[in-house]
User: What shape does this take?
Amino acid sequence: MNTGFSSHLPRALIVNVAEIDRQHDGLFSELAALKAMCIEQNALPVARAEALFDLLVTHCATEEQLARDAGLDFRKHHEKHERMLKGIRKMLNEVEGEALDVFSLIRYIDYWFERHIADEDKDLGYALQLAAQAEDPDCRLAPEPMWGGGAGRAMQPGQLV
Assistant: This one.
């Protein structure tokens, strides 16, 4: 089945919100390209790393806007984004200053993407779907995802964990 995504977004990390899934796919694709360049050059291609960071900042803003538009409480999720962006910015600066190896940065970003999507964005996706369904009763909610995490919990409109 063709999901319309590249092969870089793991199927288990699809959150069933088209804009978020498209951005996640783009982030994973950019990370894969960055990894390949790092291996080829045995160094950090700074412009490419900065472009990935900019995409991540844009993605965080998109999630926040979608949550705000749906009337969801996004404070905890936003705090996690802020900590992550600060951590990646610090690591980028350390790699650029040669205080940290590039592969530590890549492993951190890769781990963070997967963990954050599984632990946070799956719940966000489900909450956004619930909000859309509450606003438009004809809106069809995606089937209950087949993954762990919090979306199996009962959620109230406006609640986001």
Remarks:
- The domain at 16-132 is CATH 1.20.120.50 (Four Helix Bundle (Hemerythrin (Met), subunit A)).
- The longest helix spans residues 102-135.
- The helical segments are 18-41, 46-69, 75-96, 102-135.
- The CA atoms of residues 9 and 78 lie 22 Å apart.
